[in-house]
Amino acid sequence: MRKLTKSSPRKFVVMMSLMTISVYAQADKASDVQSLPSSIAQWQTTAKQDIEAAYQQSVANHPGIYDSHNPGFPKLLESAKRQSLALAQQVNNAQGYAAAIARFNTALQDGHAGVVAVLPDELRLPRHWPGFSVVWRGDGLKVYYSEHSQIAKGDKVIRCNNTPIEPLMRKTIFTFHGQVEQPGHWWEQGWRLLVDDGNPFLPKLKTCDFVKANGSTYSVQLQWTERPESVKQHLVNAYNGDKLAIGLHWPTEGIAWIAMPTFSPNEQQKADYQQLFVDLSKQRAQLLTAKAVILDLRHNQGGSTFWSLKVAEQLWGQQLVTYRKEQASEKTQVWWRASKDNTEYVESLKVILKDQPEMYEMVKKVSAGMQLSLDEGAPFYVEKNQPSEQSAGEVTGSDFQNKAMVIVPGQCGSACLDAVDTFKLFANTVLFGAPSSSDSTYMEVRLVDTPSGLSKVIIPNKVYVNRPRDKGYFYQPDIPYNGLEWTTEALLARIQSIIK
What we know:
about 500 residues, alpha+beta, 2-enoyl-CoA Hydratase, Chain A, domain 1, 21 strands
């Protein structure tokens, strides 16, 4: 058998990500804003200034500007600015501002780049609806909850405003949200079609046509009203289903359920993960005789690869997981964009990591490399693969051979997608649920306020070169699940029917 060599290539990728909080979590709160625009002219000026600032920040710091593997990025960035500025000239309120900012992102088609609006609560309008809510499920838009007398849960929306749903979604919501060519983003964004958040650039939907399960069709004139607060409780499970606590659960005999709803854990959730690792070790004999081990990624929006890696090591074995990951990423390099601001950002992490020696040394090395590249006028600091050290033992097969079924939601990207990468290194892993999201090769983001404080620029600090999973790649489920309900109860019933 081949021997596993103990080496440090790309370990920093995992350790560094421990410092990374989800972009969406960071961007959830607006910065302090000294004064808000109060006229149409001020909103337009603010939008233009913030879009220009986002562009300039990206030109100065984004790895794509100098990425020889992506020569079209500078023109794409210029196009994003041009398209969003065209909308900025028509802005007359906060909602128009947010839409113009959003267009910058959808033009780039990259969740790890662009700019995101973070409007304070006082600028948000009440959400309006036509009396029912929808979700995307595989091949169409279906009613999830309804207070409309004619419309029932489960009915399929086939067209609105005399336009079939798929081209309508492409022209409307995907102009401002998500990545249209990613199937997982249809799952993630589909609900928006029948919601009015005040975007002035979207047409008002006046009619929709529906088909029932028995094949009969009907049409409805839409009446838009402010959505009652009480509706929220009916939509809790609409997207990802219920949210289980981090940990090992046994919902029924013979099925182990490992819930991982986040890879950006708070202190309590970190403790939950530590308990999960203990439980996986203590209950290993039971796990090895289970009919299936479910790896539940519902609700997960990324964070750190550390947590999924540790789960994989508990199941398949640390040496085998390390060996297969190193084999898969043997040719991968990490190029850090050595701009002044990026270099200062990485340097600042040393203060945060001063009490964590191993991570501190890794950050110190990258920071020094970036500073040297900056001083020499080189656009990147390229991490060098470290030479192998002594043997860490023989790599053998794993005794974990029973079915590992990964529940994949449509929004699964970033560290959630890294988890799927790891789990799929093993032949006993199958994917269940929706198509995943995808990543570009630009990672390790930081956020920068725009001049108004109403938006944050998303700046990735590094680019992967020769990563096994190419940019834009997404996973299709081995076992698609297009059911309306994604609750644990519903998924368990379907899984039981599969593994009989």
